[in-house]
């Protein structure tokens, strides 16, 4: 296994899926959005994730989004979820086809086996045989129970060669358990309130909803922290908390609207769910964007 602190840690920007009014995917805008995400300066992109509404997408849509992300990835690394299908034969085919899109890494969800240690380790070990790419874990809340213990994570690293995990425990205790068992893997953060503390304890990665519309916020934090300037890192962390709070209500439409305000005009605040943004929320987001522009945090 590669030394992950030098390869697969860092900021993973989550990819949103743009839609037309009829909720079909606007692939042209997705290509523009991918290039915009790359321009934020992050090291990695996470295509086909929870923020992408992967549970609402067909396999063919997921594969096309992955291919388009790769097409426009620039110098970034692209990972994508590859076990969303319902049964094992279909997931095996999904893993093979996702690996063939050109992505640099594959992500497996815990698939509702968070409380079944032996079964999960066996499942991941079996599925991993069908790709030669680095594999990451994702405690995806869409299939519960999704959270795993530090002990299970340690087994996945040692027995299955897992490169990292998107931790969604949202507790410092859950994060610490995985850090204690991580070996050379990377414990990647989804929770913003504990981001700074988790980094001080040894975490070196982020896969979080605000990266979908503000990757530059995280890259600034990461660079400050790695440089050893903890005072600046804390300032950057506080800016991330403001962004996180700004998009919390109405996500992912809130993030889509902030992307639109930053220049990706085709990114409509529409998803495949029933959620929509009120005129008050739109005004609040416009005000936040104006403040960010005035303080050189956004364009």
Write up this protein.
This protein is of the alpha/beta class and 299 residues long. It has a single domain, classed as Aldolase class I (TIM Barrel, Alpha-Beta Barrel). It has helices at 27-39, 59-71, 88-99, 117-128, 150-160, 172-181, 195-201, 211-227, 230-248, 253-261, 279-294; strands at 10-14, 44-47, 77-81, 105-109, 135-138, 164-167, 186-189, 205-208. The protein has an eight-stranded parallel beta barrel, surrounded by five helices. The longest helix is centred in the last third of the chain and has 19 residues, at 230-248. The chain is globular, with a radius of gyration of 18 Å. The model is unreliable at 1-5 (pLDDT under 50).
What are the key terms here?
299 residues, alpha/beta, TIM Barrel, eight-stranded parallel barrel, 11 helices, 8 strands, 46% helix, globular
Task: Give a quick precis of the structure.
It is built from eleven helices and eight strands.
């Amino acid at each position: 296994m590669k030394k992950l602190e030098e390869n697969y840690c860092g900021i993973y920007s989550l990819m949103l899926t743009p839609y037309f009014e009829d909720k079909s995917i606007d692939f042209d805008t997705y290509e523009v959005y991918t290039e915009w995400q790359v321009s934020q300066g992050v090291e990695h992109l996470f295509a086909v994730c929870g923020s992408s509404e992967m549970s609402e997408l067909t396999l063919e849509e997921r594969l096309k989004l992955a291919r388009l992300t790769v097409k426009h990835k620039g110098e970034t690394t692209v990972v994508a979820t590859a076990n969303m299908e319902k049964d094992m034969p279909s997931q095996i085919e999904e893993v093979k086809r996702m690996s063939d899109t050109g992505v640099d890494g594959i992500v497996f969800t815990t698939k509702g086996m968070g409380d079944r240690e032996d079964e999960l380790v066996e499942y991941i070990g079996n599925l991993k045989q069908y790709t030669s790419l680095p594999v990451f874990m994702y405690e995806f809340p869409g299939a519960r129970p999704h959270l795993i213990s530090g002990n299970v994570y340690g087994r996945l690293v040692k027995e299955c060669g897992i490169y990292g995990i998107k931790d969604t425990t949202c507790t410092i205790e859950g994060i610490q358990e995985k850090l204690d068992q991580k070996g050379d893997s990377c414990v990647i953060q989804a929770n913003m309130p504990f981001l700074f503390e988790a980094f001080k304890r040894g975490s070196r990665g982020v896969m979080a909803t605000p990266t979908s519309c503000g990757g530059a916020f995280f890259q600034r934090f990461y660079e400050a922290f790695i440089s050893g300037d903890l005072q600046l890192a804390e300032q950057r962390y506080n800016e991330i908390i403001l962004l996180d709070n700004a998009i919390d209500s109405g996500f992912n439409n809130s993030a889509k609207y902030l992307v639109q305000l930053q220049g990706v005009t085709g990114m409509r605040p529409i998803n495949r769910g029933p959620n929509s943004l009120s005129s008050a929320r739109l005004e609040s987001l416009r005000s936040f964007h104006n403040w960010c522009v005035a303080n050189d945090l956004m364009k």
